[in-house]
Amino acid sequence: MRAAMIIGAMTSTASAHSDLALSTPVAVRLSDWGVIRAKGDEAATFLNGQLTQDTVKMDVGQARLAGYCSPKGRLLASFVMWRSAPDEILLACSADLLAPTLKRLSMFVLRAKVKLSDATGDFKLYGLAGSALGANGIDAAVAPGQRTGVGRASVVSLYPADGVPRALWIAPADEAPPQGEALDADAWAWSEVRSGIVTLSAPVLDAFVPQMLNFESVGGVNFKKGCYPGQEIVARSQFRGTLKRRAYLVRSDAPLATGDEVFAAGDGEQPVGTIAQAARAPDGSHAALVSMQIAALGAGPLHARSADGPALTVDRLPYPLLEDI
Fold it and tell me: pTM of the predicted model, to two decimals?
């Protein structure tokens, strides 16, 4: 059964406990993110040969989602990236993956005219939600993935969480913080999960082909660009019907953790999925994005950690999945 057909059968429960739907502006410092700088005349060309996204055709000011894969097509990192200048591209990723990713990418620079560096200390990163966008001069109607400039800051529109608009705010380290009341970091992490977009982190390093996290459905994979590590496997998964897993949004009353295995009720021998990202909801429940066998969806109850572990309820994703080809 195709993923698009299965999606229609999922629970369409919208979260009624969103602490992000506030009348006051909300902002949170993203201390668990880091920034890699690629600078030089061949920065775009170099990254184009390493990432799932086309960086050569990315104009100054544009932002995109991208992945970095192993030769086996498994994600080693995911990025929100933007071209800040003709010779500079910045890549924001989970801080726990920055050092190994920077080291690995640097191995392939060779004679390319590009310098890679950890630029985390040069920037402030904030997550903005709800009316904080308007309070900081940001159009909440801008499509996800678009970058706008607000003074010295760059703002990248993110996928909403339960209809609440969100954005990534990046500015030089000496810039004043954006306007907004501080949001609990756990609540922002929960909004990340509810947005349906996985930010890869260390517990699930090298575990997923991009489509297993729906990256091709949210603009994170360009199938028309040139080669990059793992490109043949990623393309084969897309065009030869070999994709067997997708990412799904779930919730539970019990704590969930990134890396937890997911089981079908009655079968404790073989897991059917892995939690790719998890967070505690403002009301005390828990939410997660699970990369799971498509066949397991709708086949029976799902549980975390064991066949009789915490029950999982599947919710509708906030975006449509591209049909398997």
Answer: 0.90
CATH number for 95: 3.30.1360.120
pLDDT 10s digits, 47-62: 999 999 999 999 988 8
- Tell me the per-residue pLDDT of 273-282, one tens digit each, with 9 for 90 and over: 999 999 998 8
| Domain of residue 259, residue span | 3-16+199-315
Structure tokens at 161: 């969480």
CB 78 within 8 A of CB 65: yes
**How many Å apart are CA 267 and CA 301, to the nearest integer?**
11
| 233 and 133 assigned to the same domain | no
Q: State the Cα angle at 49 between 44 and 51, rounded to 5°.
A: 85
- DSSP for 54-96? --TT--TT-EEEEEEE-TTS-EEEEEEEEEEETTEEEEEEEHH
Place of tokens 């109850």: 301
What average pLDDT does the chain have?
Answer: 88
Residue 132, amino acid? A
